């Protein structure tokens, strides 16, 4: 019998603790598959976030280093500058990337830091119990926007990916979604391309992935995936925002 | 007098609510009381338990290393807590769901099929309040009338409509206990 | 019976702040104090105040700076790692002499640590955790009622002395639910807020700054702050004594550790050991005088902290070698039971051959 599906080698044989329907399980797998396929598991260093994926190092079988909340891109910079031949990536949520970590993220991108950032956007702070995130959408209720996010009080969702794409430093900036199997496969392709950019020595590559959080969206897992297409993708359009290899 | 009770079940079974009801009643009756909830990592389906300490004087520690009473709504709770109960303590078990029994011989068991009772009457969501009724009826830690009169405060405006069913559930538990003893 | 309600620590703190007239809350989510900003998100809207979740703890403390300089009672809250981030802001508040309340619900550390209760931030809080020559009053409540009362008092202290004030709680304090009387604010005479920047209409313009390039001017500013701190040292220290009068051994502990120690002291007394408890309520200014007074008769002290030993330094300083002082600690977020502390007391009693 032919083996057509297997656990990626870069994932430890440990059950995930993520909620049913959480996007982390899928994205972890995609990243691990890419690391396997590119053959970089012994020269890659990952930086997990503070957030639900804070224990990502329990799942990935690669070198990983914790960073204080939001400082992932700075810590990654330290690793990459000290070891330019290694592949360095961050795995960050919306707070890590675009709230407390905005400065570190923008400046690493602006320096064209040769790292890859995987940005998991679920429009809420999951780990701490469902507070508002910089990407929380207008009208979306969270525990710290109990009346729904109001632009005149809390501002608009921050499209940090779009912002980063305007800078000269980054080489590849994309946004994808996990809404359907086809989109998941497309996400994987982009993650692979992002790592390839780094391998080629090109600057900052960013893959934003719209991801479901059924627990804090108070939706079933199935409805949460539908929500990605019905709502999130409209606010955060999927697309390639920058790709220096394409003219 | 200082009595500590640990109530434990699965998140969503309402165990924290019944603990709060008892805490309010104890306060209203003039006791010192502390209530300390504890949650598992998962928001749903994880463990939910609370420790209620009732005393005549200032309570030193809201945690209990040796609770006098245990209320166990599910098997995991039994596994986790059975060794902690004080010797001679009483353990209230929801026999509808809890299939195991404590291995220790120095505990007094009070067995009530609250989930079955709930399903047969007002609905499975009120199993926790049936248990509370039986618990208070047996331990007399507070008066049932105090529990009932303070139910509004614990429910708040948003859940006020559940008041009558909750009271009914408490009485069902009380009745079951008096029939069995 | 007064109007008692069951309240959780974080909510009691938030409600007390509202009752004290706090109308600006800026914060960022971090476990185990998330209920505080969540409570404020709803409650501030009810009283027409401002709630804003900042993009980070650093942003939040700086927002507090602006609101404080506007003459509005403001506060922020966080937990250990977040408080580290706020240190620069707190230093600035102290330098600019702006009133503010900073709440630290301590968790295990250092680094990301864990989310369990701990007392590892004592140095950070009492040694002026940020840079420069400053101090902040630090309060350590041990019950929810005390937390409520101290929060209201803290805002007055902040305004009277024009200083940032720290309330040091821990993860347990945040989660315990206890009967609380939600007292209303007792308005007292406060100094006029003549530093407020609200537009120089009909008055000369004002500046708020902490940059003082001239060294002699800076020196004078430092001495001025010191004189203020000396005033606080004279007026602010608070502590609780429990069964100290005839004690041969006194436990020193604060916050949740003190609660546990009190239970241990009661048990030890039942076994015939004359033990007492000294509970500092202000960690800065430290109740040095109280310790020195007790040390006239008591020659054995045991400091108990949920850390590897920080307050013990202040106890040793206060004792000045006039009594023996030992330490027992449990760091990492472990909350010991009264029984454990009773055993430690018993062991110490025997080892030190304390009679009576």
Lay out the secondary structure.
The complex is a heterotrimer of chains A (247), B (181) and C (356).
Chain A: H1 23-38, E1 44-47, E2 63-64, H2 72-82, E3 87-93, H3 94-98, H4 102-110, E4 116-121, H5 151-154, H6 160-165, E5 172-177, H7 181-200, E6 205-210, H8 214-217, H9 221-235, E7 239-243
Helix pairs in contact in A: 1-7
Chain B: E1 2-10, H1 15-28, E2 32-39, E3 47-55, E4 69-72, H2 75-81, E5 90-94, E6 108-112, H3 114-120, H4 127-139, H5 144-149, H6 151-155, H7 163-180
Helix pairs in contact in B: 1-4, 3-4, 4-7
Chain C: E1 4-8, H1 9-19, E2 24-27, H2 35-47, E3 50-53, H3 57-69, E4 74-78, H4 80-96, E5 100-106, H5 122-126, E6 138-139, H6 144-161, E7 164-170, H7 171-175, E8 177-181, H8 215-235, E9 239-242, E10 249-252, H9 255-270, E11 275-280, E12 282-284, H10 288-294, E13 300-305, H11 311-319, E14 324-329, H12 338-351
Parallel strand pairs in C: 2-3, 2-4, 4-5, 5-7, 6-7, 10-11, 10-13, 13-14
Antiparallel strand pairs in C: 1-8, 6-12, 9-11
Helix pairs in contact in C: 1-2, 1-6, 3-4, 9-12, 10-11
Task: Describe the 3D structure.
- The complex is a heterotrimer of chains A (247), B (181) and C (356).
- Chain A is an alpha/beta fold.
- Chain A has a single domain, classed as Rossmann fold (3-Layer(aba) Sandwich), CATH 3.40.50.
- Chain A has helices at residues 23-38, 72-82, 94-98, 102-110, 151-154, 160-165, 181-200, 214-217, 221-235; strands at residues 44-47, 63-64, 87-93, 116-121, 172-177, 205-210, 239-243.
- In chain A, helix 1 (23-38) crosses helix 7 (181-200).
- Chain B is α/β, with parallel strands linked by helices.
- Chain B is built from seven helices and six strands; from the N terminus they run βαβββαββααααα.
- Chain B has helices at residues 15-28, 75-81, 114-120, 127-139, 144-149, 151-155, 163-180, and strands at 2-10, 32-39, 47-55, 69-72, 90-94, 108-112.
- Chain B has a six-stranded mixed sheet with strand order 2-3-1-4-5-6, with helices on both faces.
- In chain B, strand 2 and strand 3 form a beta hairpin.
- In chain B, helix 1 (15-28) packs parallel to helix 4 (127-139).
- The relative contact order of chain B is 0.17.
- The mean pLDDT of chain B is 90.
- With 356 residues, chain C is α/β, with parallel strands linked by helices.
- Chain C folds into two domains: 4-235, 3-Layer(aba) Sandwich (Rossmann fold), CATH 3.40.50.970; 239-351, 3-Layer(aba) Sandwich (Rossmann fold).
- Chain C has twelve helices and 14 strands.
- Chain C has helices at residues 9-19, 35-47, 57-69, 80-96, 122-126, 144-161, 171-175, 215-235, 255-270, 288-294, 311-319, 338-351; strands spanning 4-8, 24-27, 50-53, 74-78, 100-106, 138-139, 164-170, 177-181, 239-242, 249-252, 275-280, 282-284, 300-305, 324-329.
- In chain C, the strands form three sheets. In chain C, strands 3-2-4-5-7-6-12 form a seven-stranded mixed sheet, with helices on both faces.
- In chain C, helix 1 runs parallel beside helix 6 (144-161).
- The longest helix of chain C has 21 residues, at 215-235.
- The two termini of chain C are 41 Å apart.
- The A-C interface holds A 50, 54, 66, 68-70, 95, 99-100, 102, 125, 127-129, 131-132, 134, 143-147, 153-154 and C 28-31, 34, 37-38, 41-42, 45, 51-53, 55-58, 81, 111-112.
């Amino acid at each position: 019998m032919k083996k057509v599906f297997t656990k990626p080698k870069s994932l430890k044989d440990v059950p995930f603790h993520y909620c049913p329907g959480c996007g982390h399980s899928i994205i972890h797998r995609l990243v691990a598959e890419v690391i396997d396929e590119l053959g970089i598991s012994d020269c890659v260093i990952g930086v997990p976030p503070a957030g639900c994926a804070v224990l990502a190092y329990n799942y990935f079988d690669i070198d990983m280093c914790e960073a204080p909340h939001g400082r992932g891109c700075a810590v990654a910079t330290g690793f990459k500058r000290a070891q330019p031949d290694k592949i360095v990536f961050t795995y960050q949520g919306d707070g890590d990337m675009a709230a407390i970590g905005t400065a570190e993220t923008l400046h690493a991108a602006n320096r064209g830091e040769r790292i890859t950032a995987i940005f998991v956007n679920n429009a809420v702070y999951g780990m701490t119990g469902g507070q508002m995130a910089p990407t929380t959408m207008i009208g979306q209720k969270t525990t710290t926007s109990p009346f729904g996010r109001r632009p005149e009080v809390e501002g608009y969702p921050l499209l940090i990916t779009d912002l980063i794409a305007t800078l000269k430093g980054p080489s590849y900036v994309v946004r994808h979604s996990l809404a359907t199997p086809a989109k998941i496969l497309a996400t994987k392709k982009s993650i692979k391309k992002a790592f390839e950019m780094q391998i080629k020595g090109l600057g900052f590559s960013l893959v934003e992935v719209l991801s479901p959080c059924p627990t804090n969206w108070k939706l079933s897992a199935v409805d949460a995936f539908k929500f990605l297409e019905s709502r999130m993708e409209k606010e955060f359009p999927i697309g390639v925002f920058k790709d220096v290899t394409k003219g | 007098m200082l009595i500590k009770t640990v109530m434990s079940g699965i998140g969503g079974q309402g165990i924290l609510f019944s603990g709060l009801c008892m805490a309010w009643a104890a306060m209203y009756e003039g006791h010192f009381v502390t209530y300390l909830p504890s949650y598992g990592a998962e928001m749903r389906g994880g463990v939910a338990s609370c420790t209620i300490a009732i005393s005549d004087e200032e309570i030193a520690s809201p945690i209990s290393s040796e609770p006098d009473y245990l209320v166990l709504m599910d098997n995991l709770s039994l596994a986790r807590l059975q060794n902690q109960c004080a010797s001679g303590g009483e353990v209230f078990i929801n026999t509808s769901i809890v299939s195991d029994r404590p291995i220790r011989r120095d505990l007094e068991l009070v067995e009530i099929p609250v989930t079955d009772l709930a399903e047969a009457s007002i609905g499975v969501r009120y199993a926790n309040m049936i248990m509370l009724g039986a618990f208070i009826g047996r331990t007399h830690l507070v008066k049932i009338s105090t529990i009932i009169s303070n139910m509004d405060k614990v429910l708040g405006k948003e859940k006020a409509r559940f008041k009558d069913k909750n009271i009914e559930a408490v009485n069902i538990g009380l009745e079951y206990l008096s029939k069995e003893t | 019976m007064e109007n008692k309600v069951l309240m959780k620590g974080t909510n009691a703190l938030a409600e007390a702040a509202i009752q004290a007239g706090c109308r600006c809350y800026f914060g960022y989510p971090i476990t185990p104090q998330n209920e505080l900003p969540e409570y404020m998100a709803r409650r501030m809207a009810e009283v027409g105040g401002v709630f804003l979740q900042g993009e980070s703890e650093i942003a939040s403390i700086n927002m507090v700076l602006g609101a404080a300089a506007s003459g509005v009672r403001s506060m922020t809250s966080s937990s250990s790692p977040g408080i580290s981030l706020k240190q620069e802001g707190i230093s600035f508040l102290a330098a600019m002499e702006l009133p503010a309340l900073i709440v630290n619900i301590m968790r295990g550390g250092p680094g990301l640590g864990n989310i369990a209760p701990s007392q590892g931030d004592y140095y950070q809080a009492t040694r002026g955790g940020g840079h420069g020559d400053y101090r902040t009053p630090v309060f350590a409540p041990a019950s929810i009622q005390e937390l409520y009362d101290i929060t209201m008092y803290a805002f007055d202290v902040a305004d009277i002395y024009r200083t940032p004030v720290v309330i040091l709680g821990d993860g347990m304090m945040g989660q315990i639910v206890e009967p609380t009387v939600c007292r209303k604010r007792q308005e007292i005479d406060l100094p006029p807020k003549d530093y407020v920047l609200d537009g120089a209409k009909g008055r000369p313009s004002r500046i708020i700054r902490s940059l003082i390039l001239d060294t002699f001017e800076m020196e004078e500013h430092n001495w001025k702050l010191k004189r203020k701190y000396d005033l606080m040292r004279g007026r602010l220290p608070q502590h609780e004594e429990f069964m100290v009068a005839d004690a041969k051994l006194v436990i020193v502990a604060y916050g949740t550790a003190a609660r546990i120690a009190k239970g241990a002291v009661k048990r030890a007394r039942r076994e015939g050991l004359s033990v007492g408890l000294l509970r500092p309520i202000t960690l800065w200014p430290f109740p040095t005088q109280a310790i020195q007074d007790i040390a006239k008769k008591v020659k054995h002290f045991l400091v108990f902290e949920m850390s590897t030993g920080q307050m013990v330094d202040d106890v040793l300083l206060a004792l000045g070698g006039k009594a023996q002082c030992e330490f027992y600690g449990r760091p990492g977020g472990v909350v010991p039971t009264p029984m454990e502390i009773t055993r430690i007391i018993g062991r110490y009693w025997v080892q030190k051959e304390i009679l009576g």
